[in-house]
Amino acid sequence: MSWVASQAYYRVQREVSEGKQQCQRSDRYIHLYKDKITTHRREFALHQVFDISYRRIGGEIGMLYLHTHTGVFPYTVNTDPTPFIQQYKSMPNQSV
């Protein structure tokens, strides 16, 4: 099954070894399908997602929040997620 919409996000992992801090950035994607949303490590049926919101932190960086039946999951984005959110809100199987 192919996805309907996709949103890039990234994760920064910091490690300290030998007194030095190193940062490693991993680029990932959130995919919206007709019946689910998937991320790198998680999968949610659309009826388990109550809402998707976005808050800009500064510049072009912001946080995309998936509000689900098991909690709120934040994802760091550096592109405008408005088209992804609009596509989700137009889906017929979303939570009421």
Quick synopsis:
The chain is mainly β and 96 residues long.
Keywords:
elongated, mainly beta, PH-domain like, 96 residues, 59% strand
The ordered H/E elements are EEEEEEEH
Tally of helical runs: 1
> Which stretches of 5+ consecutive residues score pLDDT under 50?
none
- What is the share of helical residues? under 10%
Count of folded domains: 1
Strand arrangement in the largest pleated sheet? 1-2-3-4
Mean of the pLDDT scores?
Answer: 92
CATH topology: PH-domain like
Percent strand equals over 45%
For the biggest sheet, the summary is: 4 strands, antiparallel
CATH H level, superfamily name: Pleckstrin-homology domain (PH domain)/Phosphotyrosine-binding domain (PTB)
How far the N terminus sits from the C terminus, by CA atoms, comes to 24 Å
Radius of gyration: 15 Å
**Which structural class do you get from the secondary structure elements?**
mainly beta
CATH architecture: Roll
From the spread of the alpha carbons, the general shape counts as: elongated
Output the CATH class name.
Mainly Beta
Number of strands: 7
Determine the oligomeric state from the structure.
single chain
Describe the structure.
The protein is mainly β and 96 residues long. It has a single domain (5-89), classed as Pleckstrin-homology domain (PH domain)/Phosphotyrosine-binding domain (PTB) (PH-domain like, Roll), CATH 2.30.29.30. 8% of the residues lie in helices and 59% in strands. The chain has one helix at residues 82-89, and strands at 5-17, 20-32, 36-38, 43-45, 49-58, 61-68, 71-77. Strands 1-2-3-4 form a four-stranded antiparallel sheet. The longest helix is centred in the C-terminal third of the chain and has 8 residues, at 82-89. The chain is elongated. The protein starts with a strand and ends in a 7-residue tail after the last helix.
